[in-house]
Amino acid sequence: MSQTESPQRKVIHVDMDAFYASVEQRDNPSLRGRPVAVGGSKARGVVAAASYEARTFGVKSAMPSVTASRRCPDLVFVSPRFDVYQAVSRQIRAIFADYTDLIEPLSLDEAYLDVTQDIRELGSARAIAEEIRARIKADTGLTASAGVSYNKFIAKLASDQNKPDGLCVIPPHKGAAFVASLPVRRFHGVGPVTAARMERLGILTGADLRAQSIDMLRANFRSSAEYLFNAARGVDNRPVRVNRASKSVGAERTFDRDYSDREDLVAQLDRVADAAWVRIDRHRVRGRTVTLKMRYSDFHTITRARSFSAPVADKAAFLAAGIGLLETQLPVDSGIRLLGLTLSGISDEDEIEAVDQPALPL
């Protein structure tokens, strides 16, 4: 690679498997293995999410509950708990942040990661995706599917290829052929209306789409023409766009066993603070609010926060604030299985320096 040539982009698309329904099945063992719909009821409303057991009956999100009940008479409806889904999503994003600062969340349950720079020196984007999926399973009890490729378009297609709990890697030399083999209705940005119009024009696969001229696509699909023309050839130059709306940096860890002794909890919190402060330093930020997260053995989770008049000066002050919050909750009646420590109220957020590293293979 020449001095001026950029390294080949490496993108991972992580998509949680039946996220809302899987969280409900995790937290309520009686729901495991049963068809579950989050949202709605047998009589009214719509399905927000469906477990894989429900999907085998044709139940899917946005389906009227009455229709879902008719397709699956044993369907169990569960009220959504968005505060829990958001908390789990934050936990997952904290894992992502251990591997890259270039994270583009699409929703609570999916995100793009640009891992062109191998900051953990794992050797490949595949290895990074495998480790992220393993950590998500270990820390949350949930499964995630991932697609690894050289752009966002193909990475997203790949993440859906081996669901659930799957991994699919599409290297650059296989991108165009992979796209050509897929039905166009699977393309991101091709909704039911566009797919129906394509079908009328005889465009059923990526190969069919690639056979069309740009003029034909402009005449029929207008503003989407160039996107479709490039997508059919496996081309997508969109960068992973970092969402900077969240101004907090931290870390959390799920333990191999539960802890209740103060000495053990402080030792574990020290490890969490170390991991968090590495990330805080990497972002070159300082903040005034420290938040402690505690999850008990029964999965009950609480947060406690303290704000200061001046930014937290260093890791020692950060840890001291965390220990102070921890001590307000001692003694604990049941064991603690997770601790998290976050710095927010960010006073300054500089751009992250580019790191000169070799290109990371898929």
UniProtKB/TrEMBL annotation:
<dbReference type="GO" id="GO:0009432">
    <property type="term" value="P:SOS response"/>
</dbReference>
<dbReference type="InterPro" id="IPR022880">
    <property type="entry name" value="DNApol_IV"/>
</dbReference>
<keyword id="KW-0479">Metal-binding</keyword>
<keyword id="KW-0234">DNA repair</keyword>
<comment type="function">
    <text>Poorly processive, error-prone DNA polymerase involved in untargeted mutagenesis. Copies undamaged DNA at stalled replication forks, which arise in vivo from mismatched or misaligned primer ends. These misaligned primers can be extended by PolIV. Exhibits no 3'-5' exonuclease (proofreading) activity. May be involved in translesional synthesis, in conjunction with the beta clamp from PolIII.</text>
</comment>
<dbReference type="GO" id="GO:0003684">
    <property type="term" value="F:damaged DNA binding"/>
</dbReference>
<feature type="active site">
    <location>
        <position position="110"/>
    </location>
</feature>
<feature type="domain" description="UmuC">
    <location>
        <begin position="11"/>
        <end position="191"/>
    </location>
</feature>
<keyword id="KW-0239">DNA-directed DNA polymerase</keyword>
<feature type="binding site">
    <location>
        <position position="15"/>
    </location>
    <ligand>
        <name>Mg(2+)</name>
    </ligand>
</feature>
<dbReference type="InterPro" id="IPR043502">
    <property type="entry name" value="DNA/RNA_pol_sf"/>
</dbReference>
<keyword id="KW-0227">DNA damage</keyword>
<dbReference type="GO" id="GO:0006281">
    <property type="term" value="P:DNA repair"/>
</dbReference>
<dbReference type="GO" id="GO:0042276">
    <property type="term" value="P:error-prone translesion synthesis"/>
</dbReference>
<dbReference type="Pfam" id="PF11798">
    <property type="entry name" value="IMS_HHH"/>
</dbReference>
<feature type="site" description="Substrate discrimination">
    <location>
        <position position="20"/>
    </location>
</feature>
<keyword id="KW-0808">Transferase</keyword>
<protein>
    <recommendedName>
        <fullName>DNA polymerase IV</fullName>
        <ecNumber>2.7.7.7</ecNumber>
    </recommendedName>
</protein>
<feature type="binding site">
    <location>
        <position position="109"/>
    </location>
    <ligand>
        <name>Mg(2+)</name>
    </ligand>
</feature>
<dbReference type="InterPro" id="IPR043128">
    <property type="entry name" value="Rev_trsase/Diguanyl_cyclase"/>
</dbReference>
<dbReference type="Pfam" id="PF00817">
    <property type="entry name" value="IMS"/>
</dbReference>
<dbReference type="InterPro" id="IPR050116">
    <property type="entry name" value="DNA_polymerase-Y"/>
</dbReference>
<dbReference type="GO" id="GO:0000287">
    <property type="term" value="F:magnesium ion binding"/>
</dbReference>
<comment type="subunit">
    <text>Monomer.</text>
</comment>
<dbReference type="Pfam" id="PF11799">
    <property type="entry name" value="IMS_C"/>
</dbReference>
<keyword id="KW-0515">Mutator protein</keyword>
<dbReference type="GO" id="GO:0005829">
    <property type="term" value="C:cytosol"/>
</dbReference>
<dbReference type="InterPro" id="IPR017961">
    <property type="entry name" value="DNA_pol_Y-fam_little_finger"/>
</dbReference>
<dbReference type="GO" id="GO:0003887">
    <property type="term" value="F:DNA-directed DNA polymerase activity"/>
</dbReference>
<dbReference type="InterPro" id="IPR036775">
    <property type="entry name" value="DNA_pol_Y-fam_lit_finger_sf"/>
</dbReference>
<keyword id="KW-0548">Nucleotidyltransferase</keyword>
<keyword id="KW-0963">Cytoplasm</keyword>
<dbReference type="InterPro" id="IPR024728">
    <property type="entry name" value="PolY_HhH_motif"/>
</dbReference>
<keyword id="KW-0238">DNA-binding</keyword>
<dbReference type="InterPro" id="IPR001126">
    <property type="entry name" value="UmuC"/>
</dbReference>
<keyword id="KW-0460">Magnesium</keyword>
<dbReference type="GO" id="GO:0006261">
    <property type="term" value="P:DNA-templated DNA replication"/>
</dbReference>
<keyword id="KW-0235">DNA replication</keyword>
<comment type="similarity">
    <text>Belongs to the DNA polymerase type-Y family.</text>
</comment>
